Amino acid sequence: MEFTKMQGAGNDFIVLNNMDNKIPVSSLPSLAKHLCTRKKSIGADGFMVLVPSDQGADFKMLFYNSDGSVGEMCGNGARCICRYAYENGLSGEKQSVETTAGIVYGERITSREYRIRLNDPTLVETNKKIRIDDKEYTVDYIELGDPSIPHCVVTMNDPSELDYPALAILGSKIRYYNGFPKGANVSFTAVHSRNHVIAATFERGVEDFTLACGTGCGSIVTAHALNDRTDSENVTVSMPGGDLHVSVNLSGPLPHDLYLTGPTNIVCTGTVTDEDLNI
Asked: Element (H or E) spanning 64, and its range?
């Protein structure tokens, strides 16, 4: 079974072209969980599988978190898979990707830099009050696409408060907050300037902080721009794995035209020979 390992700003993925492998979809969750387990297998934040599109896109992306659960969409994953599709002759320099959350459009900027148009926000709740362990927090809650990708943005007063290991317990509790119907990805963030934000995201399905989160970056900038903490165009989000760049259009009843730009990296290609794997 041939695979490609890719990463975008430290968010890493195993990519499988199932148009060639034809592994039953029912086997993909357990395969994802196995292959994404670090130290015992290849290891990754997520598992992305290319299959034919049902909606006239260049291809369809099935996304699985490292715990085997299905993900609606992944921003950095989509950027990486757009590069994979271009370099493997599955698309041109502009890509259309069918995802569970809707069609995502990509574009090759340079040989390694790719931009995607994220799913539009379908629900935005700014300055939402939540209570965790008898303490009240003011957060912004945003859902992207339909079915939605849920994000909670927690804004800290100063970048010095972004002690991610210490915030992991709080991130886990907010991730499972009972007021979020599907749980949420939780981004802790601090504003450095009108066009620069520092952040990290505690991700559902990984159940830990990842080095970067693309849909998280889109939600972060949307929340900050709506609260007039940052601009809405060309905002840099510095995550532990690198910088990503976001623009969002705030006109109309809901934000839209949410673009994410950043680097991609083909780490390796190879053949899975795992003797513990039984598909």
From this structure: strand 59-65
279 pLDDT more than 80: no
Where b means 16+ CB within 10 Å and e means fewer, 78-101 reads bbbbbbbbbeeebbeeebbbbbbb
230-246 burial, b for 16+ CB within 10 Å, e for fewer? bbbeebbbbbbbbebbb
CB-based contact 61:25 (threshold 8 Å): no
Q: Which residues are catalytic?
A: 74, 213
At residue 249, does pLDDT exceed 90? Answer: yes
The pair of three-digit structure tokens given for residue 34, joined into one six-digit string: 């196995």
Q: Residue 214: helix, strand or coil by DSSP?
A: helix
Cβ neighbourhood burial of 20 (10 Å; 0-12, 13-18, 19+): exposed
pLDDT of residue 92: 98
Q: Round to whole Å and give the CA distance between 243 and 224.
A: 17
84-98 residue pLDDT tens: 999 999 999 999 999
List the alpha helices (DSSP H) in the chain. 18-21, 28-35, 75-87, 164-175, 214-226
CA atoms lying within 13 Å on the CB side of residue 189: 35
Do the Cβ atoms of 86 and 96 come closer than 8 Å? no
The token pair that represents 172 in the structure block: 């886990």
